[in-house]
Specification:
327 residues, alpha/beta, Rossmann fold, 2 domains, seven-stranded mixed β-sheet, 12 helices, 41% helix, 20% strand
């Protein structure tokens, strides 16, 4: 009896070892993901991040759980959604856009935060790109970097050489708005463009802003990519077509929805890269030791359907160098 009991005990213990090892190897990580945008459909921001997780071997529902939160374009919802995620004590928080990232920054200094933003140094999120410090790191979309805004204005002028009035829609509450607006004005001055700017802090202010610029007789328009714009891309595209305003933005989705041009970083690739930071943090690296990466892949996209609808001829040289032409 004793020998049989001993064999049973040893056999049971041996059988349990693989189960214990497997349990230790399959820790399920928890990530909180939040964006000011809307939950309808699969945005490039969401698709890129999910692809990045797959690239690093994470399978949602198996070895990682991602709690997704959308503010549906409403800044007033961000604080509650951030608080909800922080209370879950996730291993990492992932945020997109300054309103969300500011909310995360104010809510915790203990949970690592991976951001996608414009200029994280100017916004006060990190001490420097090379040495972030604190609990935050991630991807900079180069918004506000010298020359990028100017390049967009130049592209508009190349397409519309007779244009004299440039409309700018911006969010004055964005940390990068002031610098971006200065760049737009400086570029416009060198191109003999008079600038008429109009603010849009919330979604309900977008239509009045575009309508006001249309009444002012602007020949073209530059749209800053700061919230609330990313959450209302289809509506903005429709308004631009309605008022027959050729526009450029950083956002590829906006040109897909009716704007004339987009020039800026690839959102899918940038959010895909956020998964790299999540992976490194889950494997033990501190955010303070992970330098912020700048999005370097810039894309020029042209909507030829919009050009035809507005009676605009795109120079063949621009078409030739475009990364994508929407027919």
């Amino acid at each position: 009896m004793r020998r049989r009991g001993f064999i049973t005990l040893v056999g049971g213990t041996a059988a349990a070892w693989p189960l214990l090892a497997r349990a230790q190897q399959t820790k399920v990580w928890r990530v909180g993901w939040i964006w000011i945008g809307r939950s309808a459909g699969i945005s490039p921001e969401l698709a890129g991040f999910r692809q990045g997780l797959k690239d690093f071997g994470y399978v949602e529902g198996q070895n990682i759980i991602v709690e997704y939160r959308y503010a549906e374009g409403r800044r007033d919802r961000i604080a509650d959604l951030v608080a909800e995620l922080v209370q879950m004590r996730p291993d990492v928080l992932v945020g997109l856009g300054n309103p969300v990232i500011t909310g995360l920054k104010n809510a915790t200094t203990a949970i690592p935060i991976v951001f996608m933003t414009g200029d994280p140094v100017a916004a006060g999120y990190v001490a420097s790109l090379a040495r972030p410090g604190g609990n935050m790191t991630g991807v900079s979309m180069m918004q506000g970097i010298a020359g990028l805004t100017a390049k967009r204005i130049e592209l508009l002028k190349d397409v519309l050489p007779a244009a004299t009035r440039l409309g700018v829609m911006f969010n004055p509450d964005s940390p990068t708005a002031a610098g971006d607006l200065v760049q737009a004005e400086q570029a416009a001055n060198t191109l003999n463009l008079f600038v008429r700017s109009f603010p849009a802090r919330r979604g309900e202010e977008i239509e009045p802003a575009i309508a006001a610029l249309a009444r002012d007789g602007v020949d073209c328009m530059y749209i800053q990519a700061a919230p609330p714009v990313p959450a209302f891309v289809p509506e903005i595209g429709a308004l631009l077509l309605k008022h027959r305003i050729p526009a450029i933005s950083e956002l590829r989705q906006l040109v897909e929805s009716g704007a004339l041009l987009s020039y800026g970083p690839n959102l899918f690739e940038s959010t895909r890269r956020q998964a790299y930071f999540v992976d490194r943090i889950l494997k033990g690296t501190k955010p303070a030791d992970l330098p912020v990466e700048q999005a370097t892949k810039l894309e020029l996209v042209i909507n030829m359907k919009t050009a035809k609808a507005l009676g605009i001829t795109i120079p063949p040289s621009m078409v030739a160098r475009a990364d994508e032409v929407i027919e």
